[in-house]
Design brief:
Elements lengths: L1 E7 L5 H10 L4 E4 H10 L3 H11 L6 H12 L7 E5 L5 H10 L4 E6 L2 H8 L2 E3 L6 E3 L26 H23 L4 E5 L4 H12 L9
Parallel strand pairs: 1-3, 1-4, 2-3, 4-7
Antiparallel strand pairs: 5-6
């Protein structure tokens, strides 16, 4: 069983690399952000709280995040292991995670802040079917329209310049120190996130001593 944490600033490719890593290894991708976005879309009580927090430019509180992570991992649908992204984001969450679960490795995707801004501010989302697009590398066939359902694309609420600057500041202040906590265990792997996704994935697998990536059909 393999259990990995993937970390990096917004736009570093955590979701993409997690999916590629899980693709042929039987691992489960657990995205805390996706869980929260699902609740927002379904208008649950939790979703309403998350939306208010995001609109205020703040991060969801530790107690709620830890509760969501614990509930998700307690489903035990990860027979071969998991890759978790979007968690932990600060020292308290890291301590909770290390006390509760054994971790086999931490993948740290490194990306300069100017590239973060370029990537994040180019992201678009279909609010109807959930498809993600990027105006740099993954443009829709018809500008502003989803290729799958034709719905008009939107910018995520947390992808505005103001929200991005707040998230970068919060990441540097609270999340980067988490890497130092993990480094004491000597299992942090720093990966350059600037190359194409397949090259980044190859670097991750090489660092973790995993088989080369083979896309599943």
């Amino acid at each position: 069983m393999r259990k990995y944490v993937i970390m990096g600033v917004q736009g570093s490719g955590k979701g993409t690399q997690s999916e590629l890593l899980c693709d042929d290894l039987g691992l489960v991708h657990i995205s805390v952000g996706d869980i929260f976005r699902w609740h927002v879309k379904k208008h649950t009580k939790l979703g309403a709280h998350v939306r208010r927090t995001m609109n205020a430019g703040e991060l969801v509180g530790d107690d709620l995040v830890e509760s969501v992570v614990r509930e998700r991992l307690d489903q035990h649908d990860w027979n071969y292991g998991f890759v978790i992204d979007g968690f932990p984001r600060n020292g308290r969450q890291a301590e909770f995670f290390m006390e509760s679960y054994d971790i086999d490795g931490v993948i740290h995707l490194e990306l300069p802040e100017d590239e973060v801004r370029r990537r994040v501010l180019s992201r678009r989302l279909c609010p109807n079917c959930g498809m993600d697009y990027n105006l740099i590398a993954d443009r829709p066939k018809e500008p502003g329209r989803c290729d799958i359902c034709g719905h008009q694309l939107i910018t995520r609420e947390d992808d505005t310049p103001e929200a991005l600057e707040a998230r970068l500041s919060d990441y540097n202040e609270k999340t980067r120190p988490v890497l130092e906590l993990f480094r004491r265990k000597e299992y942090v792997h720093d990966i350059d996130a600037r190359p194409p996704a397949e090259e980044v994935q190859a670097s991750i697998r090489d660092a973790l001593h995993l088989p080369a990536y083979k896309a599943t059909v």
